[in-house]
Amino acid sequence: MTAGLLSLGTATLYEASKLDCILPHRIRPAWPGAAVAGVALTVAALPGDNLALHLALEQARPGDVLVVDGRAAAFGYWGEVLAEAALARGVLGLVIDGGVRDVDQLRDLPFPTFSTHIAIRGTVKNGTGPIGAPLPFDTVTVHRGDTIVADADGIVALPAAELDRITAAAVARADAETEYLRRIRAGESTMDIYGFGRP
């Protein structure tokens, strides 16, 4: 399932979903080529404090993607050690509104990582917010069990109850676009293919 979602891509999944499901554009791949699809485990961290991420790994299940509210703070909440610990638990990747470090090591593992900042400033381990609770990101709320798909274009959070519908619609959209490309290469214009009216 996850490989198929990655091949469809976030842009197609978003368009097919007809939902407001895009996570903030400020969260970008920490290294070129990062891509991941898995099940959301939500984590609320305190500013500059990464104890919540250590605790979340104890609760994580294989196939999870950690989705973390780090308050968009420029701290190194995550690095090589936590990535190795995550891989040992079967965690597939990290999406964090906050900072990460050890980017070369994250790439080499490889551990797909999406973050707001690359930051080396250290964190404390004093407290935590909720783990597994609904987590708002601007206009989108991510729930435990949502499907997260992240690639170079962006990040979408797809509600579990809607996943089959969205996937089917995305496959149909991808097939249609393949036909559009064939027609373009054969010399047709996009105006004619899409049936746009000319002023």
TrEMBL record:
Catalysed conversion reaction: 4-hydroxy-4-methyl-2-oxoglutarate = 2 pyruvate; oxaloacetate + H(+) = pyruvate + CO2
Cofactor: a divalent metal cation
Leader peptide range in chain numbering: none
EC number, as in UniProt: 4.1.1.112, 4.1.3.17
InterPro entries membership: RraA/RraA-like, RraA/RraA-like_sf
The organism's place on the tree of life at top rank: Bacteria
Subunit structure: Homotrimer.
Role of this protein: Catalyzes the aldol cleavage of 4-hydroxy-4-methyl-2-oxoglutarate (HMG) into 2 molecules of pyruvate. Also contains a secondary oxaloacetate (OAA) decarboxylase activity due to the common pyruvate enolate transition state formed following C-C bond cleavage in the retro-aldol and decarboxylation reactions.
Family the UniProt entry places it in: Belongs to the class II aldolase/RraA-like family.
Protein name: Putative 4-hydroxy-4-methyl-2-oxoglutarate aldolase
Species: Paractinoplanes globisporus
Organism lineage: Bacteria, Bacillati, Actinomycetota, Actinomycetes, Micromonosporales
